[in-house]
Amino acid sequence: MALQPEQILEDNLVKQLISLGYKVAAITDEKSLLANLKHQLEKLNKLQIKLSDNEFKKILNALAKGSVFEKAKTLRDRLQINRDDGSALYIQFLADDWKKNQFQVTQQVTVEGRYQNRYDVTILVNGLPLVQIELKRRGLELKEAFNQINRYQRHSYWASYGLFQYVQTFVISNGVNTKYYANNKSQSFKQTFYWADEENNRYTELSKFAETFLQRQQLATLIQKYVVLSETDRILMVMRPYQIYATEAIVERV
């Protein structure tokens, strides 16, 4: 059976991410997602003694709590749990130095919620899904990908431990046009943005977008510095390119 154009688009993106230093994660369902998360957290936190099932369950229970906004705070904080021997353990989910984070990519993760959903391409950082990419074949309206993500938010992102509610930014593309936006289910399609360089030249084509926006250092910086947690509205917002460049210029001048 011939590959559909959408599948080719997806496979090519994964190959490109591998060339940018991402590791492939063999994740197809919740069980493999959780097993990978446990392993990545052990690596990130340099644990000499691996997490027991009981200790990992404490972490999962903490990760499951709260809204998307509250989970974004959990992501940026350290979690204290008591180990089985009674000692305190502080778990970090994001490293300050981008090089210490582990970047993975996977395809077609299946999650059972109100309905069974399969997500196109997922970027995991230290085992948590932080970027979700929804692709549509060339010729289709970009808004179809946006609407698809809205359905996932209603149907399955909250399922089980709600790990897909840790997504910080969504990417939608039909190969020709590509946009990004924050994980805020109340926003409209008008709040999706094109990526651009400092001269405001847009990177609309998927491979050009991935080459810059999804480069590991750039992505880590975006998540840690330019995804804004609005305390007033308790939502996530992400800066547009010109806002990011302006902020960086001000910091450099200071």
Largest sheet properties: 6 strands, mixed
**What is the average per-residue confidence, as pLDDT, rounded to a whole number?**
94
Helix/strand structural class: alpha+beta
- How many H/I helices? 8
**Order of neighbouring strands in the sheet with most strands:** 1-4-5-6-7-8
Shape: globular
Q: What sequence of helices (H) and strands (E) makes up the elements? A: HEHHHEEEEEHEEHHEEH
Q: Which spans of ≥5 residues are poorly predicted at pLDDT below 50?
A: none
Strand proportion, as a percent range, falls in 15-25%
Span between N and C termini? 59 Å
Please give the number of β-strands.
Answer: 10
Written description of the protein model:
Helices cover 37% and strands 23% of the residues. The chain is α+β, with helices and mostly antiparallel strands. The strands form 3 sheets. A 6-stranded mixed β-sheet has the order 1-4-5-6-7-8, with helices on both faces. The chain is globular, with a radius of gyration of 18 Å.
Main features:
254 residues; alpha+beta; six-stranded mixed beta sheet
Helices and strands, with pairings:
Blueprint: H1 5-19, E1 23-24, H2 30-44, H3 53-63, H4 68-75, E2 78-82, E3 88-92, E4 103-112, E5 116-125, E6 128-135, H5 142-155, E7 169-173, E8 178-182, H6 206-213, H7 216-226, E9 227-230, E10 235-238, H8 241-253
Parallel strand pairs: 1-4, 6-7
Antiparallel strand pairs: 2-3, 4-5, 5-6, 7-8, 9-10
